[in-house]
Write a structure and sequence with these properties.
The complex is a heterodimer.
Chain A (H helix, E strand, L loop, with lengths): L18 E6 L2 E6 L4 H7 L6 E2 L6 E2 L12 E4 L2 E4 L10 E6 L21 E8 L3 H12 L4 E4 L20 H4 L5 H13 L4 E4 L2 E6 L5 E8 L9 E14 L3 E3 L12 E3 H10 L7 E5 L3 H12 L3 E7 L8 H9 L4 E3 L1 E7 L6 E6 L12 E4 L2 E4 L3 E3 L2 H8 L4 E3 L9 H18 L9 H11 L8 H19 L15 E5 L9 H5 L5 E3 L8 E3 L10 H5 L5 E5 L8 E6 L11 E5 L5 E6 L2 E4 L8 E6 L2 H4 L4 E2 L22 E3 L4 E2 H9 L5 H8 L12 H10 L19 E2 H5 L4
Parallel strand pairs in A: 1-7, 3-7, 8-9, 8-13, 9-10, 13-24, 15-22, 16-17, 16-22, 17-18
Antiparallel strand pairs in A: 1-2, 3-4, 5-6, 5-7, 11-12, 12-13, 14-23, 19-20, 20-21, 25-28, 26-27, 28-29, 29-33, 30-31, 30-34, 32-33, 35-36
Helix pairs in contact in A: 2-4, 2-9, 5-6, 6-7, 9-10
Chain B lengths: L2 E2 L2 E4 L5 H10 L4 E4 L16 E2 L6 H21 L10 E5 L2 H16 L5 E3 L1 H7 L10 E5 L3 E2 L2 H14 L3 E4 L4 E6 L22 E5 L3 E4 L1 E4 L5 H7 E3 L2 E2 L7 E12 L7 E4 L6 E8 L4 E8 L3 E2 L9 H12 L7 E12 L6 E4 L6 E5 L5 H16 L5 H9 L14
Parallel strand pairs in B: 1-12, 2-3, 2-13, 3-9, 5-17, 10-14, 13-23
Antiparallel strand pairs in B: 4-8, 5-7, 6-7, 10-11, 11-12, 14-15, 16-19, 16-20, 16-21, 17-18, 18-19, 22-23
Helix pairs in contact in B: 1-5, 1-8, 2-8, 2-9
Classes of the chains: A alpha/beta, B alpha/beta.
C-alpha cells in the first residue's frame, strides 16, 4: 500500500518517529509508534474500519476525537476506538465486522477497592485546551491545588491542530502566533506552577449525584500491574469543577452522510495537522464558517486539492480575510449552495451539490457532481456541555469556560478560562480582588461575530475620517489609513475590510505608526504617518489574515517592489520562478517572477515574504499568490442522488430521517419515546451526533420545539470496560 | 366541559398500558392520564427487561405465565418487534443456603405450570459460557422465561391500546384531585366491583389541565400510589386512604453490544457487602443489561445516579462471569421499585370506595406482571373473573396482612 504521510509541510515540522510494524486484518503494515491507530490506518490508505452490525454499512472515522465510537477496530482482540488508541509494535488490528466477539478469557481477576482511593482536589479542570490551560495557570499562580485532566496524550486541545496565526491581540491572546505554538507557550507556563497536577490520557467519563467525577486514566504502570500498562478508574471529589471540554462538530443530514470519507473538518485537522497524515487526495468542504475555511487552507497546506467550500447562507460566516486567502489560492467558495448527497459504494467517490433558492430548497438543474474522496462537514459546533449540565443538576459548584461555555474563537476561550479560573479562586476564598473589567470586555470582544465587510465607498469614508481625526489632533496632512494615493516611499497596504477582533499589526510596527480605528481591537488598521514607514515588513509577516502587503517605490517608482505573505511550500516560490498574482478576491493581476524570498523563521515561523516587482497600477491591489491553477470541473453525470429521507440521522443505530419523520407524523413529541420506536439516540455516542439533527426534523415537520421533550442524559458519557470499573489490576 | 369515560387509569406505565390495551379490547371506553410526556416514561423504562414466571407464589406465577404468552407471541400477533428473547432464567448456586431455598420452591412452581429444573454445573456452563465453575453446585433453570425491551413494549402496547379505538391518552397532565361521590343507585355490586356498562359518574378526576368523570378509577401510579391515595375525597371529605407503597431505588446499566454468547438471565442470590442479589443478561441486540439490589435499600424517590453502583456491580459480575471484563459499559440509570411491606403486588378493589381499583406496588416486577395483570384488570372491570384470576386477586388483596416476605422479589 502507498504511504499517505505528509512528508513536507510549509508550517509544521515533520517529526522523526519510530516506525513499528502492525497487522491489519492479517496484512503487515508500518506505522509510527504511539500514533493513533486510526491515523496509522489512514497513512496506509485504509479508511474503512469495519461494517455495521445492523445493515453492513461501511464504517470509518467521524469525530477523530474519542467521542463517537464510529472508528471502532479490534486491537489485540479487544474493541477499541482507533482514534484514541496508540499504536504499538506488533499490534494485531482487525476490522469490526458486525458485532465484536467477546474473548473467552475466563481468568478470574483480582480487584483494587476503588472507593477507598477517592482523590480529593480543590479544583478539577476537565480539558487541557486553551480555556482549561488558561484557567489552570491562574489557579496555579495562586497556588491552588488543581488537577487538570485531558483525554489526549498532550496538552493544548484543539490548539494542537491550528497551524494558522491567531487573531486577537499580541499581549492578550498571542495574536499572530500559530495555534499549536500558543499551546506550547501555555504548557510551559503551567509547568512552572507546582500546585497544578496534569493527568494526560485521562478521560472524564461521568459525573454522579454523590458529587464524584469518574475518570479513566490510561497507560498506568505500577507494581500492581507488574509494570504492564493498564487503565485505571479513579473517582475524583473536587470542591470546584471547571468544564473546559470544548466543542463537538455538528453533522448534516444528507444521503450518504455516513460513508467513510464524510467527516468533520475538525477530525480532518486532527489527521492532517496533528498526525501529519494525508487523509485525502481531494475534498469538498460544506460550511463557510471559520472552521470550514481554515480546513480548506489546511488542506492546501497538506497538499490536498480543495474542490470548493460551499455555504448555504448568502455570505460566508467566517472571517473575510480567511475566506479571501482561500479564494486567492484558487479555491472557489459557493454561497447559497448545499450538499445533496455523498455518493459511493463503500466510501465516498463523489459529491453532489446544488444551488439553493430563497426557501432553502435545492434548485432543479443546478446540481453538480464532483469526484472527491472526502467531504468535510463544517456546519457549526455544539458545546460539549453534558458534564456541566449534569454537575449543575447534582448541585455541584461547577463552572464552564471556552467552547463548553459558548462557541467562539480559541482566543476568547483563553480569556473565559482566565476569568473562570479567577472566579473559582474567589469562590474558594483564596483570591480577594475582582475580575478585571477589561478581561470581561476583551472576552466579549473576542467572541464577537465579524462585522459586515466594508464596500470601497465605506472604506474611503473611513480613510477620510481617520485623516480628519489625525488632522484635528496633530494638524498633519498626511494620507492616512494606508496611503492609497501615495506613490512614493514605502508603506504597507491593508486588505482588511471587515471588523474582527484582531490587532497584532499595531504591536509589531517598529515605528508605532499602525493603529486601529478608535484604538479598538475590532477597528480596521490605518497609518498615522505614512512617511515614517521604514519597510520592516513585520506587519506583513504577522497578519493572521495574510491581508497586508508592503509596497516599496524607493528603488523604482514605476515598478515598485511588492512583498506578499505566503504560507505554502518554499519550492513553489523560488527566486526567478513565475507566480500568478491576484487581488483580494482572487482575480488575476498577471504573472511575475519572484525577485526574492524573505523568511524570519524564528520570529515569524511558517510565513514566507515573497517579493515581486509590479507595475504601479496594480502594485497596491496585489495580495494573493494563486496556487490551484484551474478550477476543478464537475463530472458530467445525471443527478442520481437519493431522497433526503435516506439520510442517516442516528449513525450508531442507523436510523434514517424518514423513520424519524414518520414517527413524528404519528404524534411523537418526546425524544425519549423515539428510542422505543426506532432506537434513535441509543448508541454508543449517547446522541452526541444526532441530537441537533433530530430536533431539526421536528422543526421541519412544523412542530414547535417547546412541545418537544428532550432526551434524558445519563452517565456514562464515554464507554468504559467492566474490568476497569471494577478496579481490575493490570 | 368534563370528559366522560367508562374507566380512567392513572399511570401509562408497566401496568397502566397493558390494562388500557385489555380494557380497550373489551370495548371499555378508557382514558389514561400520565404526568410524563409519553408512554412508559415513568419507571417502566427503567426496568431491565427480564420476564420470568419463576416466582415462589401462585399469583405471580399465574400472571407471569400469561405475560410470557403475550410477550413471546407479540411480534407474530401484532407485528411490532418488542425484542422478545426466550433465554430462560438461571439461578446459579454456590452455597447450600441458596440451593435449599431454590429447591424448596420447585413443587409449587411446577404445580402452577412453571417449566423449571434444578440443573448441573455442566448444563449451567453450556447455557452461560464462561461462568465461574469454582464452587458452582448447580442451579435452577426455567427455559421459557425471557426478556424483551420495556421501551419497545411500551410503544407497542400504547399503539395497540389506541388501535382498539376505545382508549384516549392524556400526557403531561398531573392529577390534582380525585373526588368520589357515593351513588347508592349506581348499580354497584355488593362485593365492591362495578360494571363498565354503568353510566353513572362516581369519580371526578381533576388534573392541572382538565376534568374527567368515570365510575371506575384504576390506580396504576406505581411509586406514586400513596400520594394518589391521599388525594381521594369521598363526598368532599378526605378518604384517609393509606396505600402501602413505598419506593426504593435500584440502579441498572447497559453495555455496548457484543456478539451474542448467552441469553439467559443470570441471577446471583448471594449477598455481599453493600448489596444483595444482582442479575444480568444479554438482550436481543447483544447488549449486556444488569442491575443490583442495594443493601440496605435506598428508600425514597431519589433516582439520581451514584458513583457507587458501577464498581460494586462490576466486580461482582466479573467474579461470576470473568469474560465480561472487556465489555464496555455504556450507560447507567436508577429506577424506583414501588415496594409493598411484604414484597407482593396489590391488585384489589377498594372495599370502602366503590369503583376504585388498585393495581400498584409491583415491587419492581411491573413490567413482567403487566400484560398478565392487565387482562385480569379488564376482567375485574367487566366482571368476568376466572377461577385462576381469583387466585391472583386473593393473593394480591389490599386487605391481606402484609406480614410475610416474598422470597424471590
Amino acid at each position: 500500500m502507498t504511504s499517505k504521510r505528509i512528508t513536507q509541510h510549509p508550517v509544521l515540522d515533520i517529526p522523526e518517529g519510530n516506525n513499528v510494524s502492525f497487522t491489519w486484518n492479517g496484512n503487515r503494515l508500518e506505522g509510527r509508534e504511539g500514533e493513533m491507530v486510526s491515523s496509522a490506518l489512514f497513512a496506509n490508505g485504509v479508511q474503512i474500519f469495519g461494517h455495521h452490525h445492523k445493515d453492513n454499512s461501511p464504517q470509518g472515522i467521524f469525530c477523530a476525537n474519542g467521542q463517537c465510537s464510529q472508528c471502532l477496530v479490534i486491537a489485540d482482540g479487544l474493541p477499541v476506538k482507533s482514534c484514541m488508541t496508540p499504536l504499538r509494535e506488533g499490534m494485531k488490528v482487525q476490522s469490526v465486522e458486525g458485532l465484536p466477539k467477546v474473548p473467552e478469557d475466563d481468568n478470574i481477576p483480582t480487584f483494587e477497592d476503588i472507593d477507598s482511593q477517592i482523590k480529593d482536589v480543590d479544583v478539577l479542570i476537565i480539558g487541557g485546551g486553551p480555556a482549561g490551560l488558561s484557567a489552570a495557570i491562574e489557579l496555579g499562580q495562586l497556588n491552588i491545588k488543581t488537577l487538570i485532566v485531558d483525554d489526549k496524550d498532550r496538552l493544548g486541545g484543539k490548539l494542537v491542530l491550528q497551524t494558522h496565526k491567531f487573531f486577537g491581540s499580541v499581549e492578550d491572546s498571542h495574536a499572530g502566533t500559530r495555534g499549536f505554538e500558543i499551546g506550547h507557550i501555555l504548557e510551559k507556563k503551567l509547568a512552572q506552577l507546582p500546585s497544578v497536577e496534569v493527568w494526560l490520557e485521562t478521560t472524564a467519563v461521568g459525573v454522579f449525584s454523590d458529587k464524584v467525577v469518574g475518570v479513566v486514566r490510561e497507560n498506568i504502570k505500577d507494581e500492581n500491574s507488574g509494570n504492564k500498562a493498564y487503565s485505571k478508574y479513579i473517582k475524583i471529589r473536587p470542591q470546584k469543577t471547571l468544564v473546559a471540554t470544548g466543542a463537538r462538530e455538528k453533522m448534516l443530514p444528507f444521503p450518504g452522510n455516513t460513508l467513510p470519507g464524510v467527516y468533520g473538518a475538525g477530525a480532518f485537522q486532527t489527521l492532517v495537522n496533528r498526525d501529519l497524515v494525508k487523509s485525502s487526495e481531494r475534498v469538498l468542504i460544506v460550511g463557510g464558517g471559520n472552521v470550514g475555511i481554515i480546513a480548506g487552507y489546511h488542506a492546501i497546506q497538506a497538499g490536498i486539492e480543495v474542490v470548493a467550500v460551499i455555504e448555504g447562507l448568502p455570505e460566508v460566516g467566517g472571517y473575510k480575510v480567511h475566506a479571501d486567502k482561500l479564494e486567492r489560492l484558487g479555491v472557489p467558495i459557493y454561497t447559497r449552495h448545499t450538499v445533496l448527497s455523498a455518493n459511493g459504494k463503500d466510501a465516498v467517490e463523489s459529491v453532489t451539490i446544488a444551488q439553493l433558492d430563497d426557501k432553502w430548497k435545492a434548485i432543479k438543474g443546478t446540481e453538480k457532481t464532483f469526484k472527491v474522496d472526502t467531504v468535510l462537514i463544517a456546519v457549526g459546533l455544539s458545546p460539549v456541555n453534558e458534564f456541566y449540565l449534569k454537575a449543575k443538576e447534582w448541585g455541584m459548584d461547577v463552572y464552564s469556560a471556552g467552547d463548553a461555555q459558548e462557541i467562539a474563537e480559541a482566543s476568547a476561550a483563553m480569556f473565559t478560562g482566565k476569568i473562570e479560573g479567577i472566579r473559582i479562586a474567589k469562590a474558594l476564598g483564596i483570591y480577594e480582588g475582582g475580575i478585571p473589567d477589561e478581561w470581561t470586555e476583551k472576552a466579549a470582544v473576542l467572541k464577537s461575530k465579524p462585522g459586515v465587510p466594508l464596500s470601497e465607498e465605506a472604506l474611503s469614508a473611513l480613510r477620510s475620517y481617520c485623516c480628519d481625526k489625525k488632522k484635528d489632533s496633530e494638524g498633519g496632512s498626511n494620507d492616512a489609513l494606508d496611503g492609497r494615493s501615495v506613490e512614493n516611499g514605502v508603506m504597507p497596504v491593508f486588505h482588511c475590510t471587515q471588523e474582527i477582533p484582531c490587532n497584532p499589526c499595531t504591536s509589531v510596527c517598529e515605528e508605532g505608526i499602525i493603529k486601529t480605528q478608535d484604538d479598538k481591537i475590532t477597528g480596521l488598521p490605518y497609518l498615522t504617518d505614512i512617511t515614517k514607514c521604514k519597510g520592516c515588513m513585520n506587519c506583513v509577516a504577522i497578519c493572521p489574515g495574510l491581508a497586508a502587503t508592503l509596497v516599496d517605490y524607493r528603488k523604482d517608482g514605476e515598478n515598485p517592489t511588492v512583498t506578499l505573505p505566503y504560507e505554502l511550500w518554499r519550492d513553489t516560490v523560488e527566486k526567478g520562478q513565475v507566480i500568478t498574482i491576484t487581488d483580494v478576491k482572487g482575480n488575476l493581476l498577471g504573472d511575475y517572477p519572484v525577485e526574492r524570498v524573505v523568511a524570519n523563521k524564528k520570529k515569524f515561523p511558517g510565513t514566507l515574504l515573497v517579493q515581486v516587482k509590479m507595475g504601479k497600477d496594480v502594485a497596491k491591489k496585489a495580495i494573493g499568490i494563486k496556487f490551484q491553477k484551474s478550477p476543478i470541473e464537475s463530472l458530467d453525470v445525471p443527478d442520481t442522488s437519493a431522497l433526503p429521507d435516506e439520510a442517516v440521522i442516528c449513525r450508531c443505530e442507523r436510523v434514517t430521517a424518514g423513520e424519524i419523520r414518520s414517527a413524528i407524523r404519528n404524534g411523537v413529541r418526546d425524544v425519549n419515546q423515539l428510542k422505543g420506536i426506532n432506537r434513535t439516540g441509543m448508541g454508543s455516542c449517547g446522541s452526541k451526533t444526532c441530537r441537533t439533527m433530530v430536533l431539526a426534523i421536528f422543526r421541519d415537520e412544523g412542530v414547535d420545539l417547546k412541545e418537544v421533550t428532550e432526551r434524558t442524559d445519563r452517565p456514562l458519557f464515554v464507554e468504559v470496560p467492566f474490568g476497569t470499573l471494577a478496579g481490575m489490576k493490570g | 366541559m368534563a370528559k366522560n369515560y367508562d374507566a380512567i387509569i392513572i399511570g401509562a406505565g408497566s401496568v397502566g398500558l397493558p390494562a388500557a390495551m385489555s380494557l380497550g379490547a373489551l370495548g371499555v371506553k378508557t382514558a389514561v392520564i400520565d404526568k410524563m410526556p409519553s408512554a412508559g416514561q415513568g419507571e417502566n423504562k427503567h426496568a431491565i427487561g427480564g420476564i420470568r414466571a419463576t416466582h415462589s407464589d401462585p399469583g405471580k406465577i399465574i400472571a407471569c405465565i400469561r405475560s410470557i404468552e403475550i410477550f413471546s407471541t407479540w411480534k407474530e400477533t401484532y407485528g411490532d418487534d418488542i425484542e422478545w428473547l426466550t433465554g430462560g432464567y438461571m439461578f446459579p448456586v454456590y452455597r447450600e443456603k441458596e440451593e435449599n431455598l431454590l429447591k424448596s420452591f420447585l413443587p409449587i412452581q411446577r404445580k402452577y405450570g412453571l417449566n423449571i429444573d434444578y440443573v448441573s454445573p455442566d448444563v449451567i456452563s453450556e447455557i452461560a459460557p464462561g461462568i465461574n465453575r469454582d464452587g458452582l453446585l448447580g442451579g435452577t433453570f426455567s427455559p421459557n422465561d425471557g426478556s424483551a425491551s420495556p421501551m419497545n413494549s411500551a410503544a407497542a402496547f400504547f399503539k395497540r391500546a389506541k388501535e382498539t379505538g376505545n382508549v384516549d391518552f392524556y400526557f403531561k397532565e398531573s392529577v390534582k384531585g380525585i373526588k368520589a361521590t357515593h351513588a347508592s343507585n349506581s348499580g354497584l355490586r355488593a362485593d365492591g366491583s362495578s360494571s363498565a356498562n354503568n353510566d353513572s359518574n362516581n369519580f371526578v378526576v381533576e388534573t392541572d389541565k382538565d376534568t374527567y368523570n368515570t365510575p371506575i378509577l384504576i390506580d396504576a401510579a406505581g411509586p406514586f400510589s400513596r400520594q394518589l391515595g391521599e388525594m381521594v375525597t369521598v363526598d368532599s371529605k378526605p378518604a384517609n386512604l393509606d396505600i402501602p407503597v413505598f419506593p426504593d431505588s435500584h440502579e441498572g446499566g447497559v453495555t455496548e453490544p457484543v456478539e451474542p454468547f448467552f441469553k439467559t438471565m443470570l441471577v446471583d442470590l448471594r449477598p455481599a457487602q453493600g448489596s444483595k442479589n444482582y442479575y444480568f443478561y444479554q438482550n436481543a441486540h447483544g447488549h449486556i443489561i444488569f442491575c443490583i439490589t442495594p443493601d440496605p435499600p435506598i428508600l425514597g424517590f431519589d433516582k439520581r445516579e451514584t458513583s457507587l453502583f458501577l464498581p460494586q456491580v462490576a466486580s461482582r459480575m466479573l467474579n461470576l462471569m470473568p469474560r465480561l471484563k472487556n465489555i464496555r459499559v455504556r450507560r447507567v440509570w436508577r429506577g424506583l421499585y414501588p415496594m409493598t411491606p411484604d414484597g407482593s403486588p396489590i391488585l384489589s378493589w377498594n372495599k370502602d370506595i366503590k369503583g376504585l381499583l388498585h393495581a400498584t406496588g409491583m415491587c419492581g416486577q411491573g413490567y413482567m406482571l403487566g400484560p398478565g395483570l392487565g387482562e385480569i384488570i379488564s376482567r375485574m372491570v367487566t366482571d368476568q373473573l376466572t377461577e385462576s384470576d381469583k387466585i391472583v386477586t386473593d393473593e394480591f388483596s389490599l386487605y391481606r396482612s402484609f406480614g410475610g416476605e416474598e422470597a424471590l422479589k
